[in-house]
Amino acid sequence: MVLGRIKTRESVKDIKILDKAAVVSERMKTALVRSKDQAENLMDDGQISPSEYAEDKIRYAAEDVTDQVWHEVSGQTKKAIERGKEAHRERRNEKRIHKNEERVRRYEEELRLKKQRVQDNLSRIGGSDVTVAGMVGADCRGKIRRPHGQASGADETRPSNLRSVLNAPSSSLLALPGNRQ
């Protein structure tokens, strides 16, 4: 048995050479054809009669006006939105400032009332020799300061914590030993 011969194609591995002159001439031909078509389209607007010409002219003018109006309206709208945002920011900041000023006023009033209450309570228990300065606030740890040179009396009984003086009812303060009325 004789087998038939199988036909094969030889593959040629070769670098293709670009014909630059042919490529350039092809591009020039397509550019020429394209420009010729554009020129024909520009010359022929499809206006057969003067009335069609007038219709096109009016339509193009209306499109231009609507484009200009749209541009102007969108610009004015953006400006109005920005002004509204700015007014809102200013109002919010004014509210914040007013709120903080009110907090400061309340805090100052609270401190003034605390100081007055401490002075009243100290005067009720006979603490005229006790200084109040520096004792109102969060660092009150029960220390009663006396003017320089005065020692505490042995028979005096003082509260160990200033908060107990601040928070104690006035009737209990009157019952403390050493109370001078």
Write the layout of secondary structure elements.
Blueprint: H1 20-43, H2 50-124, H3 162-167, H4 170-174
Order of helices and strands: HHHH
Report the portion of residues in β strands.
under 5%
Shape verdict? elongated
What is the CA–CA distance across the termini? 145 Å
Instruction: Give the helix level as a range of percent.
Output: 55-70%
| Rg over alpha carbons | 50 Å
What's the count of strands?
0
Give the overall average pLDDT.
75
Q: How many helical elements?
A: 4
Largest sheet: none
Structural class, from helix and strand content?
Answer: mainly alpha
Low-confidence runs of at least 5 consecutive residues: 136-142, 154-159
Description:
- With 181 residues, the protein is mostly helical.
- The chain is 61% helix and 0% strand.
- It contains four helices and no strands.
- The chain has helices spanning 20-43, 50-124, 162-167, 170-174.
Summary, kept brief:
The chain has helices spanning 20-43, 50-124, 162-167, 170-174.
